[in-house]
């Protein structure tokens, strides 16, 4: 149906219609996110033509002059020079002032001040005098703006104004006070003037009567109404006010009967009177009664229905019954050729737009265009929003860019839509330009738009623009969301602009915005990267004040960063002091500092902290001692570590954990001999070394090719009834692949079968032999895998090693099988898995397969090793 109606106007804008027909049915309009379905379907249809057909329509608007007047009025600063220049500009327009024109201007005005200025200027123009109607209009504007005091000032001083004497003095005063909501004063004045023998005119009587109704002074209403009647001033306006009088007292039936009476005895009544009661029913949600009444009065044939329909539609829309309103509109259009006025169109369009009913919006806009209904600002803004929502960014932008041509001044909603749409379309620079423009015009985007734009700017790395946006936002006390704040800071840090990030952070901090933990992390690691330990320190303390608890690794980073400066000790102690002065100093803080200093390879600082701890009466716990030991060991200060360890052992019974720390640390420091001594020592003391001690020892001893001891240690491990771990097993296999020495050490230590074409089980030593190529293993791969499984639990690393072993055989067939087994076992092949296989395939000349696998490897994001690269 919609498209049929559209087709009627097809000659006006074939392109636009084609577009909408192209994306027929609902799918592409509802749920529109800008730049999706519609623009894709539209493809390369020239949007210029759509734009120009709308532009022609916009140019036809007839309130441009009024806009222009208000532009002049609102742009002037409040000093005499600019006031003069504005008045000059107004004079140059060559306006023909009349009551009608002034009323039109006042009606069009948005801000009270401009209206007042115009009123004042007009009153001083030769040949024009304000009338009661214009006075009433300005009074109404003032009272609507709740500027009663301005108005009363106005009334009190107005006798001094030359031009005021042209209108009747008392009439104006009575009207003024009546409209100002001071009917008592108005009545007093009325009484006084009657006393001195003057009377109000018809207009002023009605203003007074209306004010009395507004203020619920129903008794006085009756009296004044009688006066009006006596003077023969009674007309439709009187009837309207009387109906309102009933409505105000919630006497809708009486109001209805009153109108019926007027109709039947030929009284003064018009559609405006009917509107009041229809509106009253609607406002009480009695739409059925209102509808019935509307039909009844239509049948009278005396009223022009447009105005009544307009009120009906307005009330329906306001009550959220848009569907009913649209249905009504269509039926009246067909049956009676009803055409809504501009305001009703605008209202419907805006509401439908809000509900994303874009097809209907489009229909209405087309109808207006076809019906040559002159659009106003609201219509143009709605059209702009519509094109944004429909994803027709080009058209929207074209309108925007040529806005001066037809006097379009976007409102905040239109700005928001345009900015959102441009961001969604990837035109972030355009969006930013529009934003700057909107700010110049005094609009700042809504929160959602702000974050969409900020998001896009961050994403595209347009950080200067982002910074500018942030500054403007902060100037307006718009505080960004946590997520946005964090995103911006992290983008700045990524771009190595952590100082800028810090400035922004400072600004927000000043506004009592608490940064998230994540934001602090970004900033601290930014300053860590640029070696600004001082600022990192400040942030570390500040984040705790903001209620976040830094992790141990954050302390490590900050302390390391501090220790890279010229005076590490001063800085370090300062931070410690700040930290300790903070909440009550706890062991944890001290421990973090010992740990941090240890990681920064500053064991002397660590020791200082340890001593301070003791001095200040905080008993170091086992963790403190372990961290202290680790600090020495990390810096390879072996004798210090041993001394400290010795002291600890003297003080209390050395624990397994301390031994463990020493053994692991010594191994890492490549001192396996001393570590080994400690291992025997702890065993002598009846302590059971942890598996990790054995692992570290095997690793360190193997690197030193001290294979005889390795075998001895493994013996010891097995004797204590424990199993070889995957870690140890893998080290053994690795070293077997490299040389035969490990196997030889094994043979020296005990009996190993020289030749095993065995299919059954192998000992660990035999497995080493097999990997060293000293023992031939026949049978299939499952066999070998099983053998490994009997010695230790294989992991991915083990499979890789097995793969390497099998790649040595030129057939390579088993290698593939292992590759598949890896998946079967639930592992994901890693870089090494691929590298080994690719390497083997190239080496054996199976180039095609190698290339295929290499491709797969690259696709998974793994780089081949240099060694493999040489073969490619
Ligand atoms: C601080 O820098 C070091 C190296 O310079 C790095 O290892 C560490 O992860 C960084 N810490 C943070 C929190 O970024
Ligand atoms: C030492 O004290 C810290 C802080 O209270 C605690 O986290 C840690 O677990 C303690 N260490 C031991 C071994 O008790
Ligand atoms: C490679 O494996 C095949 C099949 O098991 C075997 O016959 C051949 O001897 C092996 N070659 C080497 C060099 O190990």
From TrEMBL:
UniProt repeat feature PPR, residue ranges? 166-200, 341-375, 376-410, 411-445, 446-480, 516-550, 586-620, 655-689, 795-829, 830-864
Entry keyword annotation includes Repeat? yes
Q: Which InterPro entries match?
A: PPR_rpt, TPR-like_helical_dom_sf
Gene3D superfamilies from the xrefs?
Tetratricopeptide repeat domain
Which UniProt keywords are given for this protein, alphabetically ordered? Repeat
One Pfam family from the UniProt entry?
PPR_2
Q: Which PANTHER family match?
A: OS03G0856100 PROTEIN, PENTACOTRIPEPTIDE-REPEAT REGION OF PRORP DOMAIN-CONTAINING PROTEIN
Recorded family membership = Belongs to the PPR family. P subfamily.
This protein's name: Pentatricopeptide repeat-containing protein
